């Protein structure tokens, strides 16, 4: 085992321990998965695994939504006014300036109401519906907060980072779905992303408020901000799904955001085939059996299409 492979193994096991996940002690399997220097792009071979899979886990990231025209707020040009997402998506920023943070999320909510699922979202949802009739399971584990998977028809959905269309009361903790447009009258027409747009400076009592009886506390988006922990119940469900899946797809993610970046490598350690669908390779591509380059809306429909072995009718 090379020094690189040893370091990769050490990193994976260290992160798994921190997450409370257990890697099965299978040295040979691990060596096979980690030492793979070139992931295959043979779609026919992937389809053989797909045809036999009974429990498919699909991990999705920002790249899927980007193909629907959703801004990622990452890389060059990834700004809202003069701020990056990590400047505003924090508890500290909300405490300091809830009006500014709500402007940012109001902009994102209104934008998402105009966006639509793309062929990748639809291919996943149609695959889930089709395989469920055959007694096979597809579960989507997404880092996205835009609900495009839900709108495409996905039923088995685990949202790691929450949803733009849910709110949580900072006083009573109540979580509810909220699709109001605008979410409150004071935000109507606010949130434009242009650099020269002045901050609205909306009084706190005019920002979204809790409608629970005798509460009226300040609402915040029910999303996981930088510096916050993922919901332990959601993580527990993710862990259970990954522990039993027999095929894993990683779609539109850079595999650098933790802990989600370690999900697929953990599955690969078990000897389960992992297929990465992304515009480019990632730091963990070499650990996977397959890698398919290109837009997910182009590669996924072919990969998840009805297989000739499936019973039709």
UniProtKB/TrEMBL annotation:
Report the GO molecular function annotations: histone deacetylase activity, NAD-dependent; NAD+ binding; protein-malonyllysine demalonylase activity; protein-succinyllysine desuccinylase activity; zinc ion binding
The keyword Amino-acid biosynthesis is annotated on this UniProt entry = no
Which Pfam families does this one have?
SIR2
User: Which residue range or ranges hold the Deacetylase sirtuin-type domain?
Assistant: 36-310
Needs which cofactor?
A: Zn(2+)
Q: What does the record give as the reaction this protein catalyses? A: N(6)-succinyl-L-lysyl-[protein] + NAD(+) + H2O = 2''-O-succinyl-ADP-D-ribose + nicotinamide + L-lysyl-[protein]; N(6)-malonyl-L-lysyl-[protein] + NAD(+) + H2O = 2''-O-malonyl-ADP-D-ribose + nicotinamide + L-lysyl-[protein]; N(6)-glutaryl-L-lysyl-[protein] + NAD(+) + H2O = 2''-O-glutaryl-ADP-D-ribose + nicotinamide + L-lysyl-[protein]
Subcellular location per the Swiss-Prot or TrEMBL entry: Cytoplasm, Cytosol; Mitochondrion; Nucleus
- Cellular component, GO annotation: cytosol; mitochondrion; nucleus
Residue numbers annotated as active site: 161 (proton acceptor)
The residues listed in the UniProt record as binding Zn(2+), with positions renumbered to this chain, are 169, 172, 210, 215
Entry coiled-coil feature ranges = none
Q: What is its main location?
A: cytoplasm
The Swiss-Prot or TrEMBL record describes its family as follows:
Belongs to the sirtuin family. Class III subfamily.
Instruction: Note what the entry says on domains.
Output: In contrast to class I sirtuins, class III sirtuins have only weak deacetylase activity. Difference in substrate specificity is probably due to a larger hydrophobic pocket with 2 residues (Tyr-105 and Arg-108) that bind to malonylated and succinylated substrates and define the specificity.
The entry describes its oligomerization and partners as: Monomer. Homodimer. Interacts with CPS1.
Q: What is this protein called?
A: NAD-dependent protein deacylase sirtuin-5, mitochondrial
* Organism encoding this protein: Phascolarctos cinereus
